[in-house]
Write a structure and sequence with these properties.
Largest sheet: 6 strands, parallel
Structural class: alpha/beta
Number of strands: 9
Shape: globular
CATH class of the largest domain: Alpha Beta
Number of domains: 2
Mean pLDDT: 96
Helix content: 25-40%
Oligomer: single chain
Strand order of the largest sheet: 1-4-3-2-5-6
CATH superfamily of the largest domain: HUPs
Number of helices: 10
Order of helices and strands: EHEHEHEHHHEHEHHHEEE
Length: 282
């Protein structure tokens, strides 16, 4: 595996290839990331991953400085999984000057749910994804592919819209959420959980499953279903931000005619904020 830091070195490494298959990450890798890399094998002639903790998507009181950085371990995992090129830019490499040109996703899609509780988050995500796509795909001679996990449902939806509206020659491929044996969605932030919190953490997934079952059973009041889930989490010392049922295509409020739905949740357990979702058809 070739490890490069600068844009020039990345482009030199990719010059012999026509179809990079790209997995962007912030490091501290787990099996979910490696599943994306495995998918990438079928979609390109070179597998590329990036590791970059993007300051732009962290709020002033969030965990940018504390975010786990495990570069040597990550390199070993990527190499063992068949990654060909790792792009690991320093901040000065990716942002050689203050990033004043920013991508602002549309309100209604980016200012709800995660966007409401993490103002500016999707501006930071959209900007860095656009920049990484320009870095990795600038020499691509045919349709390229980039890979994202479904756990970050709203994020991958926004990136799909970004690709469409800017006519980027990129196909977005999503992988189902990779879970621990007890149902907890794999996440780099799971390492923040204490032993007792880790034992409690699968409750978020269980509440989403209960919401899904209630909708499928024909319960008419979505507000009541959402309220029950919020109350259940609070009763077990969680601090929920949202537990909601939305249309899968645009995260709008579902009508009786909508069939493709998603239940999404975000809640803090101790100091750790966890998110999860389940897509389903009713």
């Amino acid at each position: 595996m070739q490890v490069v830091h600068s844009l020039d070195a990345l482009r030199a490494a990719l010059k012999p290839y026509d179809r990079p298959a790209f997995v962007p990450t912030m490091g501290n890798l787990h099996d979910g990331h490696l599943a994306l890399l495995a998918m990438a094998k079928e979609h390109g002639d070179v597998r590329v991953a990036s590791i970059f903790v993007n300051r732009l998507q962290f709020g002033p009181n969030e965990d940018f400085d504390a975010y786990p950085r495990t570069f040597e371990r990550d390199c070993a995992l990527l190499e063992a999984a068949g990654c060909d090129v790792l792009f690991a830019p320093r901040e000065a490499d990716l942002y050689p000057q203050a990033q004043t040109f920013l991508i602002h996703p549309p309100t209604g899609l980016a200012d709800v749910l995660e966007g409401a509780f993490r103002p500016g988050f999707f501006v930071g995500v959209s900007t860095v994804v656009m920049k990484l796509f320009q870095c990795v795909f600038s020499g691509t001679k045919t349709q390229a592919h980039a890979f994202f996990g479904e756990k970050d449902f709203q994020q991958q939806l926004i990136i799909r819209h970004l690709v469409t509206q800017f006519a980027l020659p990129v196909t977005i491929v999503t992988s189902p959420t990779i879970r621990e044996s007890d149902g907890l969605a794999m996440s780099s932030r799971n390492s923040y959980l204490s032993e007792a919190e880790r034992a409690e953490a699968p409750r978020l997934q269980a509440c989403l499953q209960a919401m899904l079952a209630a909708v499928k059973a024909g319960q008419q009041s979505l507000e009541a279903i959402e309220g029950t889930a919020m109350a259940t989490l609070r009763a077990h010392q969680w601090q929920p931000d949202y537990m909601v049922i939305r249309r899968r295509e645009d995260l709008g409020m579902p009508t009786d005619r909508d069939r493709a739905l998603v239940v999404l949740g975000a809640a803090k357990l101790g100091r750790t904020r966890l998110i999860d979702n389940l897509s389903f058809d009713r």
